[in-house]
Design goal:
The chain has a domain at about 20-59. Helices cover about 60% and strands about 0% of the residues. The chain contains two helices and no strands. The chain has helices at about 20-45, 50-59. The longest helix is centred in the middle third of the chain and has 24 residues, at about 20-45.
Length: about 60
């Protein structure tokens, strides 16, 4: 004798997390803004010796 525990009408237990596209879009735009600001700052100043030394050790 088998009992069907999960009937089609019954939802799964646990928290139901619904996606929030507005928050996702805002986070994406914020990340783009922060990246562009960091890039602009990095390109605005000439590289110094410590930057070149770090780049040489990493590569």
């Amino acid at each position: 004798m088998s009992i069907d525990v999960m009937s089609p009408e019954r939802r799964e237990a646990g928290p139901q997390i619904t996606p929030c596209p507005v928050a996702t879009q805002a986070q994406h735009l914020l990340a783009q803004l922060q990246f562009s600001q960091v890039s602009a700052r990095a390109l605005a100043r000439p590289p110094v010796d410590t930057d070149l030394a770090v780049a040489a050790t990493v590569a």
